[in-house]
Amino acid sequence: MAGLGRALAGLAVLLSVGAASVSTAAVAAEAPAKPSLVPADFAVPTRVEGKGFQIVPLAPELAAIDKAAYMSSIAHLQQTFTRSTAWPHEGITDAEALTDMETEQARFAARTSFAYAVLTPDGTRERGCVYVQPSPVPGYDAVVRLWATKAEYEAGFEDELYAFVQEWMAKDWPFTRVAYPGRAIDWASWDALTAKD
After folding, report:
1. Can you tell me the mean pLDDT for 162-172?
2. What's the pLDDT score for residue 196?
3. Which of 12, 77, 105, 167 is the most buried (most CB within 10 A)?
4. Are the C-beta atoms of 127 and 89 separated by less than 8 Å?
């Protein structure tokens, strides 16, 4: 009888473990992977050169120079890029900066969004960033946002970068309609469009 009790207890454990496994699998199956932003046969650019700069994917090895760039321009980016005090902000740690780079690299690998550093030709300094992301607004294939550090902005580089990126998107990417919030579409209009979604 004691042997039967032990067997039943063992069966209960196996069933609960099995149920947990099924439950975990079911949850994983219910959380669909984000769709690729680009077709499967599209070769995503990993380096492009402009006059006085190169554009490469953000990655962990760029964490230090990326952090130095945005930390030099906190108020500027809060007003012109994010329009929020959430990022960038004082006190971002090296570990947080590295995690951010790892996250962007993972999204790039999954082809769900593409974040790029805009570096000097020698790769020692970041002049800004470019982000190619899914559009939350119907009718657009992608949203492209970019920023330049305060010093680069004041030198007129952000306008040069914007012109370059528009041409790059038209020539080398598979999109037919790209949204450029805060540029081709003013922020108020873009906010109204996203609020409808």
Report:
1. 98
2. 75
3. 77
4. no
Burial class for 176, CB neighbours closer than 10 Å (0-12, 13-18, 19+): exposed
d(CA 112, CA 92): 25
CB distance 57 to 108 below 8 Å: yes
**Beta strand 142-148 pairing with 178-179:** parallel
**Total Cβ atoms within 10 A of residue 23:** 10
Q: How far apart are CA 155 and CA 127, in angstroms?
A: 11
Closest CA to 94 of 128, 57, 63, 125: 63
Gyration radius of the chain over CA positions: 23
| For range 122-149, the mean pLDDT | 97
| Interatomic CA distance for residues 162 and 35, integer angstroms | 27
The pTM of this model reads: 0.82
Separation CA 197–CA 195 (nearest Å): 5
Distance CA(99)–CA(115), nearest Å, equals: 14
> Of 156, 51, 63, nearest to 105 (Cα)?
63
Token pair of 32 as six digits: 């669909």
Percent of the chain whose pLDDT exceeds 70: 83
